[in-house]
Amino acid sequence: MEEGSLVSKGWLAPMTLALICAGSGWRTTASAQNADAQKNRLVFAVVVHQIFNQGNLALVDDVMAKDVTNDGAPLGRDGFKAMVKDLRTIAPDLKLTVDDVVTQGDRVIGYVTQRGGGASEGRIILLRIEDGVVHEYWSWLAQPGLRPFGLRAGAERQPAASAN
C-alpha cells in the first residue's frame, strides 16, 4: 500500500469514522471543518482505536512516515511498532478513550484516558500529520487541572452527581 493511502483512497468511509467515534464517546471542539482537519482527525482515530487499542500494527505502514519521531526523537515505523507492542505486552488490556480532540493546521491534539494493567491516567497525544501521514508523535502525562489547548477531560464533561 502506498504511503498515506489509508486516507487518500478512502480506506475508512466517513460512516465508519462516525461509528468509531460515537462508540468511544469521541467528540471534537475543533472549529475548522475543512477536509484536511477531517482527514487528520480520521488519522488520529485510526492511530488510537486501530493501532493502540486493537494492536493492528500493519496499519503503521500506512499512517506513519518512515522517519516518524516520538517526542522529538527519531523512532521510525519499526520503532513505533515495537513501542505499541511493548505497551500492549505490559498491559494486554490497554485501552485509550478519546475524551476531546482539537485540530490546528497539520496538528491534532487529543486528551485521552489510558487504561490498562490496573492503572488509569490522562494523557495528551499530539500528532503532526502531512498528507495523511503522521510525521511526529508526542505523548505526555496530563497534569491534574492543566488542560492545554482548551482540551477537556472526560470527567469534566459528565454532569455532577445529585446531592439528594
Number of strands: 6
Q: Shape, please? A: globular
Helix-strand string: HHHHEEHEEEEH
Tally of helical segments: 6
Low-confidence stretches: 7-33, 155-164
How is the main sheet built?
6 strands, mixed
The assigned structural class equals alpha+beta
The level-1 CATH class: Alpha Beta
Measured on Cα atoms, how large is the radius of gyration? 16 Å
- As laid out across the biggest beta sheet, the strand order is 2-1-6-5-4-3
Strand fraction band? Answer: 25-35%
Bin the helical content: 25-40%
Per CATH, the architecture is: Roll
CATH topology: Nuclear Transport Factor 2, Chain: A
Count of domains: 1
Oligomerization category of the chains in this entry: single chain
Mean pLDDT: 79
Cα-to-Cα separation, first versus last residue: 58 Å
Task: Give me a quick take on this structure.
With 164 residues, this protein is an alpha+beta fold. The chain is 35% helix and 30% strand.
Report on the structure:
This protein has helices spanning 5-8, 14-24, 35-53, 60-63, 76-90, 154-157, and strands at 64-70, 73-74, 95-104, 107-116, 119-130, 133-141. The model is unreliable at 7-33 and 155-164 (pLDDT under 50). The chain has 6 helices and 6 strands, in the order ααααββαββββα. 35% of the residues lie in helices and 30% in strands.
Write the layout of secondary structure elements.
Blueprint: H1 5-8, H2 14-24, H3 35-53, H4 60-63, E1 64-70, E2 73-74, H5 76-90, E3 95-104, E4 107-116, E5 119-130, E6 133-141, H6 154-157
Parallel strand pairs: 1-6
Antiparallel strand pairs: 1-2, 3-4, 4-5, 5-6
